[in-house]
Amino acid sequence: MNPKFFLRMLVIGMIPLICAWPVRVYAGDPKTLPIGAPAPDFNLQGVDGKMYTLSSFKQAAVLIVIFTCNHCPTAQSYEDRIIKLTADYTGRNVAVVAIMPNDPKALRLDELDFSDLGDSYDDMKTRAKDKHFNFPYLYDGKTEAASIAYGPVATPHVFIFGKNRKLRYCGRFDDMENHDKIPTSNDARNAVEALLTDKEVPVQTTKVFGCSVKWSDKRASVQKSMDKWALEPVKVDTITTAGIHELVKNNSGRLRLINIWSASCIVCTRQFKQFISINRMYRDRDFEFISLNVDEPRKKKVILSFLQNQHASNQNYIFRRDVNSKFNETIDPAWKGGLPYTILLEPGGKIFYSKQGSVDPAQLKKVIVENHLIGRYP
User: Fold this and answer.
1) pTM of whole model > 0.85?
2) How far apart are CA 304 and CA 352, in angstroms?
3) SS3 state of residue 355
């Protein structure tokens, strides 16, 4: 661009609009902040809509910065402990702030197998509301600039600063990843207690455990996984009445999600891709998705073509529903017959979720992950 033209455009106010676009930093593996280093500043939006900087916590004698996220089972197992830590130190001049370091677009669907949520800002707001977070939860997924400055290795990763905002502790929250067992070494709490009493932190650094940070340069792995899934074979089989009976008995030992649909149903075809995503999230666990088409068998080629375009490598069936048969009752006595119809069955055939019409993917994923056969923790 001609320098004079650039200057003229800057003066009349057009260039700032361009310069304001966020610049994403491709981080790789940034260096973790060393003990004694000053706390890097940040300017991040919380789930409450407010902007937070380092000075937002200037009144606190001790500042605890925890890098965590929604999707990681280890991070989820520590949520209640972080909530309790915050409550325990309320009124003791200690501030706790959590930062979400992941680029949401660098997160593969199969990395969400212990969660109903990804790591977007909206997902963060949902998780904070569901868990009643009592600490600021900040989004750094746009540029990851703050996260790169601190250098967390995994989620969660704890950084604790003293009055002068020099790093005094860096590492794990405690030594027990299992959420329902008592830790033997409360490393973060020990560091806070030492700082509040002007003592040396007994252990300044520890190794961390959890999910690796999803830096933006991992976006390529997302596309690679999508390309791999697109190559999986897709087929549709004809199923008999006897097969339907076996299907709803669910002797698989897994959660079984069944979607009953027709190619002539707009809602059916529009929502189908949601089931493909859900299957890719949970299929490596005790879960399976089965689609059951009720169009005429002569449309099998058309149905197969649709399924191939959807990359539906799950089990697919076609069954001609006879209005005079007891098909509806076989599937679910409560079903009134409208399409689409979706049910989630436990082993043995117990239906614990059913929906006629369009499903709410967020609600369905939450029902799946909170079932005892799946769960949020390893």
Assistant:
1) yes
2) 29
3) strand
